Amino acid sequence: MAWFILFLSGLGEVGMVTFLKLSDGFTKWKGTVGTIIFGGLSFSLLSKAMVDIPISTAYGVWTGIGAAGSVLLGMVLFKESKDWRKVLFIAMIIGGVIGLRMVGAD
User: Fold this and answer.
1) What are the residues whose beta carbons fall under 8 Å from the beta carbon of 72, sequence distance 6 or more?
2) What is the dihedral of CA 94, 99, 105, 106, to 10 degrees?
3) If 0-12 CB within 10 Å is exposed, 13-18 middle and 19+ buried, where does residue 30 land?
């Protein structure tokens, strides 16, 4: 269950940075409120997951999900570059997250 909570926490981080972008430097209230809500949710779930998952693994997986998700969402929602090298490095991050999951199962 801790791994599922950690996954949700990573998705919360993606939501947080997406709303951070939409807040336009905290000048738009809907984006600002979304940033606060998703940020709080993400950190709360990360804290719960770290009860059972070591900090090194949990934080690495959390940031990996957040980084990969943010880049992919940026490509889709904000028309950011879809350069093949970017996709390659995102795949490497995802591979690292999978590796951390495999070795962090103790």
Assistant:
1) 90
2) -150
3) exposed
pLDDT tens sequence for the chain (106 residues) = 999 999 999 999 999 999 999 999 999 999 999 999 999 999 999 999 999 999 989 999 999 999 999 999 999 999 999 999 999 999 999 998 888 888 865 5
Cα(80)–Cα(83) distance, integer angstroms: 9
* Token pair belonging to 87: 């996709």
CA nearest neighbour of 2 among 44, 52, 43, 57: 52
Instruction: Quote the pTM value.
Output: 0.87
The dihedrals phi and psi of 99, each to the nearest 5 degrees, come to: -60, -45
Spatial contact of 20 and 53, defined as CB atoms under 8 Å apart:
no
Q: Are 64 and 94 in contact (CB under 8 A)?
A: yes
